[in-house]
Amino acid sequence: MGNTIQIQIRVISKEQAEILIAELAEINFYAFVQEEDSFEEENGNSLFAFIKEEDFNEEELKKFISHKNLPYIKTIIKDINWNAKWEGEFEPILIEDFVAVRAAFHQLITNVTHNIIITPKMSFGTGHHATTFLMMQQMQHINFSNKTVLDYGTGTGILAILAKKLGAKKVVAIDNDEWSINNASENIIANNCKDIVVLQKNDLNGLEVFDIILANINLNVINNSIQQLKLISQPLSNLLLSGFFICDEEAILNNFISEGFIHINTMKRYEWISILLIKS
After folding, report:
1. What value does the mean pLDDT take over residues 11-22?
2. What strand order describes the sheet that includes 93-95?
3. Burial profile 62-92: b = 16 or more Cβ within 10 angstroms, e = fewer
4. How do 233-245 and 210-216 pair as beta strands?
5. Of the candidates 152, 169, 221, 279, which lies 20 to 30 Å from 241 by C-alpha distance?
6. How far is 26 from 154, CA to CA, in rounded Å?
7. Nearest CA to 22 among 220, 214, 226, 268?
8. CA 225/CA 167 separation, integer angstroms
9. What's the mean pLDDT in 183-187?
10. Treating both helix axes as pointing N-terminal to C-terminal, what angle do 158-165 and 130-139 enclose, rounded to 10 degrees?
11. In the chain, what are the domains?
């Protein structure tokens, strides 16, 4: 795979780490791990961010975090046992009594309706991040029974898997990243949801119309996809979005409402939001 650059950044809080994760993902960092009391100079929390050596631009990183006054340590590593890394970090997530997200090495959680097994590797989407949590939290109030579903930017496949467990008749999961496609495929098999269609795609061209569209990506991708999302929606289609901050809500709603979508609700977690819309 080649060398990987590890950047260790001291952060103040979990909320600050989540914001940094979203921002660093915009400059090609692809995996993140949080640890407590691991920074050498003083106590605190550390965020470890990983990027391929060929994609790393240190001047870009310095420009990005200089105004935040955040120290960092750079390490070049030749290989990572991602399974071992995640096993050391990954704790089960509970969303009320609705769903538990756990790794295969965790025991079955019995006081929830659905158990989802995830081995995240390099992909986003375990439920630890606020946006994935919000998406699943919203999904418990949507009727998936016998519906067609698109998971746009599937990552680990977690939302596609949950949609299938909620009774969707057809689920298509797409991502532009090969690691995510491979990881989602493995997680789909682990959850006995083998009929989910997984596609590596850069956009929404050529897709059918869906009853429900799940898009947990980022602000730029969502804004650039509005017309395509409109084309693959039908009257009364549900569009569930996340991957952006509270401050982005007004602009996003204006953009989608002007294209014929109706705002149903917004849910918040830390600085993040998830928006549910219906096509009119």
Report:
1. 77
2. 93-95, 99-102, 114-117
3. eebbeeeeeebeeeeeeebebeebbeebbeb
4. parallel
5. 169
6. 17
7. 220
8. 27
9. 94
10. 10
11. 4-80 (3.30.70.120), 130-279 (3.40.50.150)
Measured distance CA(96)–CA(119) in Å, rounded: 22
Q: Which residues contact 162 (CB under 8 A, 6 or more apart)?
A: 99, 114, 116, 136, 139
Q: Is 32 left (phi over 0), alpha (psi -120 to 50) or beta?
A: beta
d(CA 136, CA 32): 21
Cβ of 267: how many Cβ atoms within 10 Å?
17
Sign of the C-alpha dihedral, residues 162, 224, 33, 272? negative
Question: Angle, to 10 degrees, between the axis of helix 178-190 and the axis of helix 158-165?
Answer: 30
How many secondary structure helices (H) and strands (E) does the chain include?
9, 14
Whole-number Å distance between alpha carbons of 69 and 72: 10
Q: How confident is the model over 104-127, as pLDDT tens digits?
A: 888 999 999 999 999 866 556 777
Strand order in the sheet with 4-11: 31-36, 45-52, 4-11, 72-77
pTM of the model: 0.78
What pLDDT, on the 0 to 100 scale, is given for residue 3?
82
Q: Is 237 in contact with 244 (CB distance < 8 Å)?
A: no
Nearest alpha-carbon partner for 51 in 75, 18, 86, 19: 75
Give the C-alpha separation, 96 to 36, whole Å: 26
The predicted structure's pLDDT at residue 15: 75
CA end-to-end span of the chain: 47
DSSP assignment of 122-190 equals T-S-SS-SHHHHHHHHHHTTS--TT-EEEEES-TTSHHHHHHHHTT-SEEEEEES-HHHHHHHHHHHHH
